[in-house]
Write a structure and sequence with these properties.
Elements: E1 4-8, H1 16-24, E2 29-33, H2 37-45, E3 56-59, E4 62-65, H3 67-77, H4 85-106, H5 114-140, H6 152-168, H7 177-187, H8 190-196, H9 207-217
Parallel strand pairs: 1-2
Antiparallel strand pairs: 1-3, 3-4
Helix pairs in contact: 1-3, 1-6, 1-8, 4-5, 4-6, 5-7, 6-7
Amino acid sequence: MSGAKLIYFNGRGRAEIIRLVLGYLEIEYEEEYLTEKSQIEKLRADGKLLFQQVPVLEIDGRIWCQGGAIVRYLARKGRIYGNNDLDASRIDELYDGSRDFWIAFAAIGFQDEAQALQTSLISKTMPRYLPIFNKILEDNGSGYLYGKSVTLADLGLLEALLMVHEYFGTSSMEAFPAVQKFYNLMTEDSKIAAFLKSPHRKGKNDDVYVSTVMKVLT
């Protein structure tokens, strides 16, 4: 695949999974960060935002909008989307579940009641999703969510687990041994480890990121 350009903010948000997939597939890309409202207005005026929102990925001679469409395109091209329609549907199912898990963490920094949000993550979100993914991993038996190698679904779950680890520590996964083993397996992968150490890996939501997003989008 040719080089690419990712247009988003200098933060994780809805673009971090795209960065993770690009990193795993070892696709070189540059980033254009939105810092002013005029930038997104120009993108809209130029017809680059099909649904008037970011992220946007320019790759292979065209512009892709919508995060889900972007990562699925990359997954197909990178052959981490199964071998047939049945595989792809199962991977979609698992990936979409990982997005439901991840979205609760994405709100950190954007809500006034930070402590209430973290309490909800501990008491509701993690107890809901960690047992489900633990059983899926146990049932599959390969260390991965589906099949015997990394798929888009694994990268989706990893993004959520990276945030679990950052905010609540490794001990939060101790009761779910298959999840803990999966986390170790994925983070020890050389391509993922390289991404996590690269400038493309963004930090936690901070005041600068949150204020920039609000300035550009409101």
